[in-house]
Amino acid sequence: MSPSCTVAGKPEFYGVGIRVSFYLLWFGITLSRWICDPTLFLLLLGTHFVFACGVFVSLLVSLTTSTELSAAEVYLLLLLVSALALYVRLPYYLWRVVTAFRPDLDCGFYHHHIGLRDRADMPGPYTFGVAETVLMVCLIGTHLWFWSAGVDSNALYAAGRDSGGLPCELEKQAGFVFKSADLGSPGFRAFNAIIIFAIAGGTLVTALADAGWIASEGESRSRRRRRRRRERRKMRDARVGLLRKLQTTSDITVTPTIVSAIELTIVWNDIPDSNGANTAAQLIPLLIGIVLLLLVVIQLGLIIGGMVPESGGNHEEEEDNGEYCHPFSHHTIMYIYLRRRRLTLK
C-alpha cells in the first residue's frame, strides 16, 4: 500500500467498542455453555444476533449506496459478523462427518436444559432459528460474491485517501492467513472460498442428517430412530461432559483466531481511527457486552462456590421431566424445526 494513499477508517462500522463487544459476547457464549439454565446463553446469543444483523445490514447498505469502504474493511466486517454465524460451525460439521452423524456424539443435539423442552415447541426458538438460517444464507452469499468478484471491485480499491484527504486508489490490501497475505491474490481468495463452500456444504449435509434423510452407518431410518431413542435414554454424564469439552475447545480455538485476524488486518492495512471508544455508538454495545459477560461469570462463580447447584439432583428424574442438564449449542436452535419434525415421524 502506498504511504500516500491509506484506508480512511470508519470507526462507526468497526471501532474498538463494537469489536470488543463482539469479543466479549463470544467469550460469554462459550462460558455460558457450562451453565445448566439456558437463559443466559439464549440472552447472549440473541444479543449477538442483533449486533451481527446491525453490522451486516450496515455493510450491505454501504456496498450498495456508496464506495466509502475499502476491500480490507469489507473483509474485516465479514470476519466480525461471520465468526459465530459461520466459522465456529466448521469444526462442528467436521466432527459430525468424522463420527458418521452418530446422534450420541452430536455436540449440538442435547438441548434438554432445565425447562427448555417446553420452550422447543414455542414459536420463539423456531422464529429465531429461521432468522439465524436466513442470516447464514445471506452471509454465505456475500462471502461468495466478495471472494469471486467483489474483492476486485474498483470501488473498493478507490476508497483510499491521500495526505490531503482526497480520494485515491489503494495499491495493495492485506488479509490474514496466519500471516499477512495479499487480499486479492488468487491463492488467498481460493483459500477463503473453499472455507465458505465447506461451511455451506456442511450446513446442508448436517441439516439432511438431522432431518433423518441421511442414515448413519448404513442403518435404515426406522432402525436409526429406534437406536436414537435408546441412546438418549442411556446418555450419561461422562459422554455429555466430553461433548461439552469438545465444543468449548472448538470455541476457544476458532474465536481467538478470528480475533487475531481482525486485529492484524487493522494493523497491516494501517486503518486509522479504529481504536477510539468516545462515542455512544461505541460505548453502548461495549457496556452491554461487559454486563452480559459479568452475569455469566457471576453465575459460574455461584455454581463453583456451591451456592447454585450445577444440576437439579437425580438425573433419572430430571431426564424424565426434561430438566437434565446437557450442553446446549446454537446449532440446536437452527435445526429445532427439523428435529421436531423428525421426532413426530417416529
Secondary structure layout plus pairing:
Elements: E1 5-7, H1 11-14, H2 16-32, H3 39-65, H4 71-87, H5 89-98, H6 116-119, H7 123-148, H8 154-157, E2 160-162, E3 167-168, E4 174-176, E5 180-182, H9 186-210, H10 221-233, H11 237-268, H12 280-304, H13 315-320, H14 330-334, H15 336-344
Antiparallel strand pairs: 1-2, 2-3, 4-5
Can you tell me about this structure?
The longest helix is centred in the C-terminal third of the chain and has 32 residues. The protein has a 3-stranded antiparallel sheet, with no helix packed on it. With 346 residues, it is mainly α. 65% of the residues lie in helices and 4% in strands. It has 15 helices and 5 strands. The protein is globular. The chain has one domain. The protein starts with a strand and ends with a helix. Keywords: Membrane, Transmembrane, Transmembrane helix.
In short:
The chain is 65% helix and 4% strand. The protein has 346 residues and is mainly alpha-helical.
Low-confidence stretches: 109-122, 312-346
Give the number of helices: 15
Secondary-structure-based class equals: mainly alpha
H-E string: EHHHHHHHHEEEEHHHHHHH
Strand order of the largest sheet: 1-2-3
Number of structurally distinct domains: 1
- Helical fraction equals 55-70%
Give the mean pLDDT: 75
Number of E-type strands? 5
What percent strand?
A: under 5%
Shape: globular
Q: What's the Cα radius of gyration? A: 22 Å
Main beta-sheet annotation: 3 strands, antiparallel
Task: State the end-to-end distance.
Answer: 61 Å
Give the oligomeric state: single chain
